[in-house]
Write a structure and sequence with these properties.
The chain is of the alpha+beta class. It has one domain: 4-Layer Sandwich (S-adenosylmethionine decarboxylase), CATH 3.60.90.10. 21% of the residues lie in helices and 39% in strands. The chain has a six-stranded antiparallel β-sheet, with helices on one face. The radius of gyration is 14 Å and the shape is globular.
Length: 122
């Protein structure tokens, strides 16, 4: 019996202007519509309200992370502004079209896929 599926996607050379909360939330909304997932809570981690002297400055730490809970699990994204990278995980016990996730993500972030995996959870 399959428990679900997870898409793991690493993209480089993305358009970092798409790494805002507004854009990422729009991405979650459209992606969930495309793969027929019901969105629940959305949680953010970034340094928008962090004092300037406490903000991250290292290229592998500057960015936004978010978890979009869906009724059947979650979608997690980590963006790296300076490196122009997106790291994405889409996991659900409800089946979905993994090629839709991959193609939509490439078109939303204008990225180049450097790693993609589809994992069946058992």
């Amino acid at each position: 019996m399959n428990y679900g599926k997870e898409v793991i996607l690493d993209m480089h050379e993305c358009d970092s202007s798409r790494f805002t909360r507004e854009s990422i939330e729009g991405y979650f909304k459209e992606l969930c519509d495309l793969i027929d997932m019901e969105r629940c809570e959305l949680y953010w981690w970034d340094d928008l309200e962090t004092p300037e002297e406490e903000k991250q400055t290292e290229s592998h730490l500057v960015g936004t992370s978010a978890v979009q809970f869906i009724k059947t699990s979650n979608i997690t994204i980590h963006t790296l502004d300076i490196l122009k990278r997106v790291y994405l995980n889409v996991f659900s016990c409800k089946d979905f079209d993994d090629s839709t996730v991959i193609n939509f993500s490439i078109s939303w972030f204008y990225g180049k896929v450097v790693n993609k995996q589809v994992v069946r959870r058992i």
